[in-house]
UniProtKB/TrEMBL annotation:
Gene3D superfamilies associated with the record: MOB kinase activator
A Pfam family of this chain: Mob1_phocein
Keywords, in A-Z order: Metal-binding, Zinc
Pro residues bias: start-end ranges: 35-46
Annotated InterPro entries: MOB_kinase_act_fam (IPR005301), MOB_kinase_act_sf (IPR036703)
Protein name: Mob1 phocein
Region of interest (Disordered), ranges: 1-46
Chain sites annotated for binding Zn(2+): 104, 109, 184, 189
Record's compositionally biased regions (Polar residues): 1-13, 22-32
Length: 249
């Protein structure tokens, strides 16, 4: 069953967590900016990011293929299933970011970098692409998502409240932005994840996020991998984990 083509009815969910800071200005974005290329041709970096190296790349809490844990359980409404999982991905990612947030500053992360040649930009209220420091960008994303989760008209929690027709599109948008937060953490803060010995947890969360996104058509592969001239660093985990049998093709 395609999630994007189905609209179901809602059921009771757990109450949601506390609200974040007030809504920032601006809209979220799908744009990506590519910094100027170096004048000399760049050769493949001899320094492979640690998250692509053994044993870190294989570190996971869940053994085997993630497909099994994303399948829609019997008798569960697909909208409800997607809503609960998106809520969990957001909550867990927010916790990880909370732990490393002191290392993600406007000085250390002046742009929303997710690869050597990739900086995400934000679309502001004037529909202009702007570079934001990563902590600002991430705060905008997380606040925006929290506000959506708290909005009964978007993520209904009460019996008898239906999911809106726009729910699939909203969730895709949320997913794309959460992917960027994952991508920034892998690119810029993997050392801190390792320092906390949290790589099995973080890999498992990301692999689960990717598997779920593919199962319910919430993620475009090109968003995961990036463009050839602006690769998403963490996007390389996709192929790696397929090789290892952690993800499906
Ligand atoms: Zn950062």
């Amino acid at each position: 069953m395609s999630f994007l083509n189905s609209i179901g009815r809602s059921m009771q969910r757990n109450p949601r967590g506390p609200k974040r800071s007030p809504t920032p200005t601006g809209q979220s974005t799908d744009n990506v900016s590519i910094p100027p290329q170096p004048s000399s041709p760049s050769s493949p970096s001899p320094n492979k990011p640690l998250y692509l190296c053994s044993p870190f790349v294989e570190a996971a809490l869940v053994k085997g293929n993630f497909k099994t844990i994303v399948v829609l359980p019997k008798y569960v409404d697909i909208m409800e299933w997607v809503a609960v999982n998106v809520y969990d991905f957001y909550t867990n990612l927010n916790e990880f970011y909370g732990v490393i947030t002191e290392h993600c500053t406007t000085q250390s992360c002046p742009t929303m970098a997710a690869g050597p040649q990739l900086n995400y930009t934000w679309i502001n209220q004037d529909r202009k692409n702007v570079h934001l420091p990563a902590p600002t960008y991430i705060d905008y994303v997380m606040t925006w998502v929290q506000n959506l989760l708290d909005d009964e008209a978007v993520f209904p929690t009460k019996a008898g409240h239906d999911f809106p027709q726009s729910f699939p599109a909203t969730v895709k948008h949320v997913y794309r932005q959460l992917l960027r937060v994952f991508a920034h953490i892998y690119h810029a803060h993997y050392n801190q994840i390792l320092h906390l010995r949290s790589e099995p947890h973080f890999n498992s969360l990301f692999a689960h996020f990717l598997a779920f996104g593919r199962e319910y058509e919430l993620l475009d592969i090109k968003e995961v991998k990036g463009a050839p001239q602006a690769l998403v660093g963490a996007g390389m985990l996709w192929e790696k984990w397929k090789e290892l049998g952690i993800l499906d093709g």
